[in-house]
């Protein structure tokens, strides 16, 4: 529950009346958490046994096929155990939150950026912001290497690395008044390390947003059904924004029902449009769609948050969590068999048609967001820390929010490996390999030497017809493959073959909402970061309400990622196939930067005994990303190394050749030379900046350890005057205190309007 001071429209301030305690006593709360009753022992014992059985079935007892139900059991049980025990360990030993201390949302409440927000609503907002294309696309592309390596990395990686990063960054930013990652880096690492962190973060953001947008473009190209349905989400979100602000303020449940109904209608109407004379008006080339997304990015980043961004986030949260839960239930009910091998023929090779390069390190940078994501650090040090009601809630929102994203990644992996392997490779290889037709694609797939795979042109054509598309060949980007897998599973539970096309385009809209939310939110965050950085030299830019600064910052950032997007769409080598490794490396390098900043902060606090909690994921992600970067920079294999590819095409042009590999014209050959130069240069820049930040953080940590800790950069503690439970489910002692607040103070008054 929450109460605010009388100055913000709530009840009387603490100085005017005596309030109940603002937090349950730590010892009481800890006693309740650690009290083991027979029922608790039985429940956790059953969870451990079920999870262990799931892992045994996936990793040890493997026949010709594996039932997908074991992925659900292994993942969910591991998440529950990790959240209950490991995140609690981090809370007790490393962070030691204090709910008697006011958070920035309380002591700096302004009704706009800072406002106490109900933990359940904030969980949805946070999840909507962090969940982009990564957990959907990465696992689909990495399925080329088999299901087991990806499953282990997604689940174990999130427990020990991804959720830890999100939790720590959120907590440390909250303790510093909601400061951004770049600001914390400047405070902790000094001028050089801080400057490198700011530049690296801005540059990496450009790549991340560009690839997110590229996934949407690849999914919607030449698909009138998909374009119409996704385009309709914009007026729907605008309607919801105006409805809540002017027509029916506060009627969240009412507008949610209307919004979901309109979304479903948009999907059905998309089918009507695709079969009518209107189809030609919604059929666009990928280049045209890319320009449309660029224009959308500018508008969405400039419009007021309440008008488009907030209602779209709210809509997408329903779609994201609801669809993933629905898919998990369908997997348990339908129990589809997974025909993909645990470890595939391409795991030890560098010539994979979907993701070139060996399993280590490329599996770990391809599955970026589902296990560990640097992008999350920007959200965890952006809007979320300014909205937290109580310090203990950071565990539920930070660690718990990342566990949900990991579950999204597992469901995406299951959907991808539940379809025929021949169809999988025909969809995810670029047209230069498949030939672009069902006949050439079938011939190419059958010559890959895959065990038990023999695809026919009729199967590829029939699959496209079943989902209402002209073709599924070379629909790269991962999103169409995920949509097909999701449609296959859901159609077996609801509607059968007759609803395959509906479920396919439902999945496309689901993915587009995921991704566009990250595109517009990411552009806005990137603009804030740029304005803050430029504001160091031109103070006027720090004023986020200064319209020229808003426009200039937005146009610069959109121009950056828009240029990379256009490059990817027109890339003869297949944009997503060449850009996604760079996306994954950049994202994980950003995670290394975030963890390095956390390392410096933990060492400054003097908690050396528990430094390993940060050090383990930091060392792992540093080794992975540095190795991957060196591959992309120095590998002599043209399919892996950017510079090797650049040299091969330059030599071919110099020799007078007019075509080579995927490039069929001299202009396309020159495009490959230009694109690989840009990608190779960015790889070098990202690596150098990340190494500078990690070195600066290591030096700062060593100084702090030698000094036994140093003065903290945290804000001064301010006593709290509000109360709220710490997690999704209130403990008995929390429920009692909640009753006291209701009886003595009354219902909460939240500036956020929730």
Automatic annotation (TrEMBL):
<feature type="transmembrane region" description="Helical">
    <location>
        <begin position="582"/>
        <end position="603"/>
    </location>
</feature>
<keyword id="KW-0813">Transport</keyword>
<feature type="transmembrane region" description="Helical">
    <location>
        <begin position="192"/>
        <end position="219"/>
    </location>
</feature>
<feature type="domain" description="CstA N-terminal">
    <location>
        <begin position="67"/>
        <end position="628"/>
    </location>
</feature>
<keyword id="KW-0812">Transmembrane</keyword>
<keyword id="KW-1133">Transmembrane helix</keyword>
<dbReference type="Pfam" id="PF02554">
    <property type="entry name" value="CstA"/>
</dbReference>
<feature type="transmembrane region" description="Helical">
    <location>
        <begin position="225"/>
        <end position="243"/>
    </location>
</feature>
<feature type="transmembrane region" description="Helical">
    <location>
        <begin position="399"/>
        <end position="419"/>
    </location>
</feature>
<comment type="similarity">
    <text>Belongs to the peptide transporter carbon starvation (CstA) (TC 2.A.114) family.</text>
</comment>
<feature type="transmembrane region" description="Helical">
    <location>
        <begin position="255"/>
        <end position="274"/>
    </location>
</feature>
<dbReference type="InterPro" id="IPR003706">
    <property type="entry name" value="CstA_N"/>
</dbReference>
<keyword id="KW-0472">Membrane</keyword>
<dbReference type="InterPro" id="IPR051605">
    <property type="entry name" value="CstA"/>
</dbReference>
<feature type="transmembrane region" description="Helical">
    <location>
        <begin position="359"/>
        <end position="379"/>
    </location>
</feature>
<feature type="transmembrane region" description="Helical">
    <location>
        <begin position="321"/>
        <end position="339"/>
    </location>
</feature>
<feature type="transmembrane region" description="Helical">
    <location>
        <begin position="152"/>
        <end position="172"/>
    </location>
</feature>
<feature type="transmembrane region" description="Helical">
    <location>
        <begin position="127"/>
        <end position="146"/>
    </location>
</feature>
<feature type="transmembrane region" description="Helical">
    <location>
        <begin position="67"/>
        <end position="86"/>
    </location>
</feature>
<feature type="transmembrane region" description="Helical">
    <location>
        <begin position="550"/>
        <end position="570"/>
    </location>
</feature>
<feature type="transmembrane region" description="Helical">
    <location>
        <begin position="677"/>
        <end position="702"/>
    </location>
</feature>
<feature type="transmembrane region" description="Helical">
    <location>
        <begin position="41"/>
        <end position="61"/>
    </location>
</feature>
<protein>
    <submittedName>
        <fullName>Carbon starvation CstA family protein</fullName>
    </submittedName>
</protein>
<feature type="region of interest" description="Disordered">
    <location>
        <begin position="1"/>
        <end position="26"/>
    </location>
</feature>
<feature type="transmembrane region" description="Helical">
    <location>
        <begin position="289"/>
        <end position="309"/>
    </location>
</feature>
<feature type="transmembrane region" description="Helical">
    <location>
        <begin position="610"/>
        <end position="634"/>
    </location>
</feature>
<keyword id="KW-1003">Cell membrane</keyword>
<feature type="transmembrane region" description="Helical">
    <location>
        <begin position="502"/>
        <end position="519"/>
    </location>
</feature>
């Amino acid at each position: 529950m929450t109460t605010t001071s009388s100055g913000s429209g709530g009840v009387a301030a603490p100085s005017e009346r005596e309030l109940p305690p603002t937090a349950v006593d730590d010892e009481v709360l800890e006693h309740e958490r650690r009290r083991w009753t027979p029922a608790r022992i039985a429940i956790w014992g059953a969870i451990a046994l079920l999870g262990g059985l799931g892992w045994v079935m996936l990793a040890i007892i493997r026949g010709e096929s594996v039932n997908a139900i074991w992925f659900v059991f292994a993942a969910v049980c591991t998440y529950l155990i990790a959240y209950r025990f490991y995140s609690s360990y981090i809370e007790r030993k490393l962070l030691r939150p204090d709910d008697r201390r006011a958070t920035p949302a309380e002591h700096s409440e302004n009704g706009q950026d800072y406002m106490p927000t109900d933990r359940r609503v904030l969980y949805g907002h946070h999840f909507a912001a962090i969940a982009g294309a990564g957990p959907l696309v990465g696992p689909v592309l990495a399925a080329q290497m088999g299901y087991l390596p990806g499953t282990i990395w997604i689940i174990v990686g999130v427990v020990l690395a991804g959720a830890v990063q999100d939790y720590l960054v959120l907590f440390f930013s909250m303790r510093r008044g909601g400061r951004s990652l770049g600001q914390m880096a400047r405070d902790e690492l000094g001028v050089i390390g801080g400057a490198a962190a700011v530049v690296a973060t801005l540059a990496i953001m450009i790549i991340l947003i560009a690839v997110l947008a590229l996934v949407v473009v690849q999914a919607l190209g030449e698909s009138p059904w998909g374009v119409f349905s996704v385009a309709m989400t914009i007026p729907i979100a605008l309607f919801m924004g105006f409805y809540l602000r002017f027509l029916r303020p506060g009627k969240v449940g009412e507008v949610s029902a209307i919004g979901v109904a309109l979304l479903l209608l948009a999907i059905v109407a998309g089918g009507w449009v695709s079969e009518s004379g209107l189809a030609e008006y919604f059929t666009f080339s990928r280049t045209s769609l890319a320009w449309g997304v660029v224009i959308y990015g500018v508008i969405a980043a400039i419009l007021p948050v309440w008008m488009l961004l907030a209602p779209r986030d709210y809509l997408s949260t329903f779609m994201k969590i609801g669809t993933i839960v629905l898919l998990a239930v369908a997997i348990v009910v339908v129990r589809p068999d997974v025909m993909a091998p645990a470890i595939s023929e391409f795991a030890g090779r560098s010539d994979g048609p979907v993701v070139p390069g060996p399993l280590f390190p490329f599996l770990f940078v391809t599955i970026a967001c589902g296990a560990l994501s640097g992008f999350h650090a920007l959200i965890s040090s952006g809007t979320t820390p300014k909205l937290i009601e109580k310090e203990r809630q950071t565990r539920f929102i930070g660690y718990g929010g990342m566990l949900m994203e990991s579950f999204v990644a597992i469901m995406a992996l299951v959907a991808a490996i539940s379809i025929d392997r021949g169809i999988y490779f025909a969809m995810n290889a670029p047209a230069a390999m498949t030939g672009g037709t069902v006949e050439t694609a079938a011939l190419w797939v059958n010559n890959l030497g895959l065990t038990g795979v023999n695809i026919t042109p009729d199967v590829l054509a029939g699959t496209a017809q079943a989902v209402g598309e002209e073709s599924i060949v070379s629909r790269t980007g991962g999103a169409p493959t995920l949509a097909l897998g999701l449609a296959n599973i859901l159609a077996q539970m609801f509607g059968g073959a007759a609803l395959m096309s509906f479920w396919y385009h439902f999945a496309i809209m689901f993915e587009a909402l995921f991704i566009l939310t990250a595109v517009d939110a990411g552009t806005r965050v990137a603009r804030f970061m740029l304005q803050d950085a430029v504001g160091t030299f031109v103070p006027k830019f720090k004023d986020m309400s200064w319209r020229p600064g808003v426009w200039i910052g937005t146009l610069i950032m959109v121009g950056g990622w828009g240029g990379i997007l256009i490059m990817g769409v027109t890339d003869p080598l297949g944009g997503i196939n060449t850009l996604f490794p760079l996306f994954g490396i950049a994202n994980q390098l950003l995670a290394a930067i975030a963890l390095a900043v956390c390392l410096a902060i933990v060492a400054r606090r003097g908690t050396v005994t528990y430094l390993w909690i940060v050090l383990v994921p930091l060392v792992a992600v540093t080794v992975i990303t540095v190795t991957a970067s060196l591959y992309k920079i120095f590998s002599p294999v043209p399919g892996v190394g950017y510079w090797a590819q650049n040299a091969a095409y330059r030599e071919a042009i110099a020799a007078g050749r007019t075509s080579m590999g995927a490039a069929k014209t001299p202009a396309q050959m020159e495009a490959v030379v230009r694109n690989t130069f840009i990608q190779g240069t960015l790889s070098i820049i990202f690596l150098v900046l990340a190494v500078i930040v990690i070195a600066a953080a290591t030096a700062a940590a060593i100084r702090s350890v030698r000094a036994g800790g140093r003065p903290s950069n945290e804000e001064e503690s301010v006593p709290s005057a509000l109360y709220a439970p710490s997690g999704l489910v209130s403990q008995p002692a929390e429920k009692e205190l909640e009753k006291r607040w209701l009886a003595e103070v009354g219902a909460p008054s939240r500036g956020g309007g929730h």
